[in-house]
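Might you be able to consider the sequence and fold that I enclose below?
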Amino acid sequence: MNLVLRHVVGAMLGVMVITVAIQICVRFVLPHLGIIVAAPWTEEMARYLMVWAIFLGAAVATRSGALICMDSVPDALPAGLGHAIRTLALLITIAFFGLLIWLGIKWTQFGLAETSTVMSLKMAWVYASMPLGAAFSIINLVALLIERRHERRSAQAALAAEAAASIV
C-alpha cells in the first residue's frame, strides 16, 4: 500500500512541478516574446494536487514514524515508561486521524454542492483527500503499533535468553 502511495505522491509532485512551470512560462516568459495566453487552470491544479500530496504523504510518513514528534522526553525516561508514552502518543494520533476522517466526510459531502472556479471540478474530489489520507494514516499507525510491540517483545525475549545464558 505504501509503495503505491509513494508513487502516487511522487507523480502528483511531478505534475505539480510541470503545472507550475507552465504557469511561470505563461505569466513571465511568453509575454516577453509577445505571446499573450492564459492558463488559469494551472494554479487550481497545483493547489489541489498539493492538498492530495500532503494528506497521502502524511499517511506514508506515519508508517515509519516520521511525523513531527518530540523524542527527547521518552528517550530520557526509563525504557518502559518511554515506551508507554510513545504508545499513548500513537493512540492520541490515531484518535486525531479518526476526527479528520469524520470532518473530512462532512467536508466531502459539503463539496458535492460546490465546484472549483476555473476547472469546474466538484470540490468533493479535493475534500476527499482528508478522510482518505487519514484512513491510510490510521492503517499505518496500527501497523506501527503492532511492529513496535513485536520489536519490544523480541527485545525482551533476547534479554531473557541472554540473562539465562549468563547464569549457566
